[in-house]
Amino acid sequence: MTKVTERYNKAKDEHHHMLNPTMEVEFWQGEAARLRQQLQCLQHSNRQLSGEGISRLSVKELQNLENQLETSLKSVRMKKEHIFTEEIKELHRKESLMVQENKELHNKIKLAHQEKAELQKKIYGLWSTNEVNKHHNTSFSLSIDNNLNAPQTDDMAAEAMNLRL
Fold it and tell me: Domain K-box: where (predicted)?
């Protein structure tokens, strides 16, 4: 509660000072000085983190710097691990989709093979029926004509098998 009151009083004082032009100039000069100081601290910290100018640091400062670097490194590693984990999850999801698609394609191929086999049975069945009729007619003509050069049904069946009908 006291912090809220302090912030209120500070904001009220700053607003009151803004009404006076000289006070406003002083405020902005102070703000610029604070920002310059903050920039210098950040530049100094950045040089230390990059390994520049650490020869003048004490052992305690070096330990603090090392702790900062270790903390930063842990954060980077955690972020990298999180990214890799998300990529692995996405790859597993894609894999399962591909496996499902592969199963569907295998089923389509299986169905196409079954349809092909049924068509072959129908074609072979029609061919066999026609062949039986031819054989019956051929044997009838053979018995009448005694023609020895008439086609043999066994040869035709073998030819059909070679053609894979």
Answer: 25-117
User: Comparing C-alpha atoms, which of 150, 121, 154 is closest to residue 137?
Assistant: 150
Q: How far apart are CA 23 and CA 7, in angstroms?
A: 19
Distance CA(56)–CA(63), nearest Å, equals 13
Segment 110-118 long-range contacts (CB within 8 Å, at least 24 positions apart) = none
Q: Are 57 and 48 in contact (CB under 8 A)?
A: yes
pLDDT confidence tier of residue 144, bands split at 50, 70 and 90? very low
Tokens of 68: 């900062």
pTM value is 0.46
Say how far residue 135 (Cα) sits from the centre of its chain: 65
Best CA proximity match to 139, nearest among 127, 157, 154, 160: 154
Q: Which residues contact 57 (CB under 8 A, 6 or more apart)?
A: 48, 65
Q: What percent of the chain has pLDDT over 90?
A: 39
Q: How confident is the model at residue 156 (pLDDT cuts 50, 70, 90)?
A: low
Amino acid sitting at position 84:
F
> If you average pLDDT over every residue of the chain, what do you get?
79
